[in-house]
Amino acid sequence: MAVLAETVHEWLDGIHNKRLSTASSAENFKFHKSRIRHLSGPGTFPEKDDGFGQGGVLYWMSRDQRVQDNWAFIYAQRLAMKFEVPLHVCFCLVPAYQADTLRQFAFMIGGLTEVEQVCIMYI
């Protein structure tokens, strides 16, 4: 079992190193602008000189409950860095969550706890 654990850790380290070799920061990460949809409409995003940057960037987490390999999260990071404002992550957990089982709900909460820990590392 120890050999398997070492193999898994080596594999995870390899993924981490590949990410770092791709871009050292979200600011340098290359992505396609076609992946971005501004909810306020095209061309309506403010520039730094427009007085934007007095609050922060809110990333509304929903389907992709992870930090790594999450295009929307990477874009939110880039915006926060560009405007030199905090990045806030919000996940709306509704009281009547429609999980099939308590096990699925617990799995989701565990994953969100991991997201929180990763976000704290970036502070």
UniProtKB/TrEMBL annotation:
It comes from the Eukaryota. Gene3D superfamilies: HUPs (3.40.50.620). Residues 55-123 form the Photolyase/cryptochrome alpha/beta domain. One of its GO terms (biological process) is photoreactive repair. It comes from Schistosoma mansoni (Blood fluke). GO terms for molecular function: deoxyribodipyrimidine photo-lyase activity. Pfam families: DNA_photolyase (PF00875). PROSITE patterns: PHR_CRY_ALPHA_BETA. This is Putative DNA photolyase.
